Amino acid sequence: MTNLDMLPVEKYDPVPTIEGPRIAVLFYANGLDTKNSRLSPLYCDMLGLPTMSLFSGSCKIMNAAHRKFKALCESKEVLLNYFEYPKKVHVWPILGIPESEKLSGKLRS
To answer: Which domain holds residue 8?
Structure first.
């Protein structure tokens, strides 16, 4: 929650603010260093990870972290199916909006 690229997006993401997740991370960390791999995949040993899929929206504060994770996967040659959707917010795939219904249909087929 220290990536400054999140700041310009915060005003567009109606669900979380940067401060909310920052407090949640500290609570969840329960004294662990926030760069511990158990708290963030950005700090894990990626050796042997299977192919993963990551869905993000350009208006989601975590999008900056998602882009950083995508770059990390590329640098470590870890296969990542990365899907970034313009003007989508936090948890948009489950909001029941037409775009999420369309995505859900694609994932089922």
So the answer is: 4-108
